[in-house]
Amino acid sequence: MTVERTLSILKPDATRRNLTGQINARFEAAGLRLVAQKRLWLSRAQAEAFYAVHAQRPFYNDLCSFMTSGPVVVQVLEGGNAVARNREIMGATNPANAADGTIRKDFAESIEANSVHGSDSAENAAAEIAFFFSGIEIVG
Ligand code: CMP
């Protein structure tokens, strides 16, 4: 088992409904450690840059509007196979397809307001963590 770090975002629908503690408890119960965390209100430019990989997708504009509609919590999760483990805990992107007991099944409102983001590969995790955090802000 490889100890990894992954970037997680608690999205505006989660902060609006005061769900950050309940979601963090799921990560911790699954053995992931919160080794960095901060609450931000993303600017349009920040949201567009973070999701630049999706710039050509039809949902990009709405996604950036949603991600700037309220505060987010950005965080680094650390643990064994953290990237894949977090994706299991989150469930499928579309809550209609998410397995029972996952965060998105239990909390997401829609494919857009789906409560959480998690990196999809170790390579993207490194880039996404560096987007939000400097090294001294991550304390393992
Ligand atoms: P996330 O993991 O944050 O990465 C991109 C986000 O785009 C995704 O979660 C969804 O919340 C959002 N999104 C909106 N519409 C779609 C769609 N049709 N397909 C995939 N992602 C979508």
How does the SSE layout of this entry go?
Layout (H helix, E strand, L loop, with lengths): L2 E8 L1 H5 L3 H10 L3 E8 L3 H7 L9 H8 L4 E9 L1 H9 L12 H5 L8 E3 L3 H11 L8
Antiparallel strand pairs: 1-3, 1-4, 2-3
This protein binds adenosine-3',5'-cyclic-monophosphate.
Question: What tags apply to this protein structure?
Answer:
binds adenosine-3',5'-cyclic-monophosphate; 140 residues; alpha+beta
Shape: globular
Q: What percentage of residues falls in helices of 4 or more residues?
A: 25-40%
Structural class based on helices, strands and sheet pairing? alpha+beta
Number of strands: 4
Main pleated sheet: 4 strands, antiparallel
Strand line-up across the major sheet: 2-3-1-4
Distinct small-molecule ligands in the complex: adenosine-3',5'-cyclic-monophosphate
Taken in chain order, the helices and strands follow as EHHEHHEHHEH
Poorly predicted regions are none
Average of pLDDT: 98
CA-atom Rg in angstroms: 14 Å
Q: How many H/I helical runs?
A: 7
β-strand percent reads 15-25%
From the N-terminal CA to the C-terminal CA, the straight-line distance is: 17 Å
Summarize the structure.
With 140 residues, the protein is an alpha+beta fold. The chain is built from seven helices and four strands. Helix content is 39%, strand content 20%.
Q: What does this entry look like structurally?
A:
By secondary structure, this protein is of the alpha+beta class. The protein has helices spanning 12-16, 20-29, 44-50, 60-67, 82-90, 103-107, 122-132, and strands spanning 3-10, 33-40, 72-80, 116-118. Strands 2-3-1-4 form a four-stranded antiparallel β-sheet. The longest helix is centred in the last third of the chain and has 11 residues, at 122-132. The radius of gyration is 14 Å and the shape is globular. The mean pLDDT is 98. The structure holds adenosine-3',5'-cyclic-monophosphate (CMP).
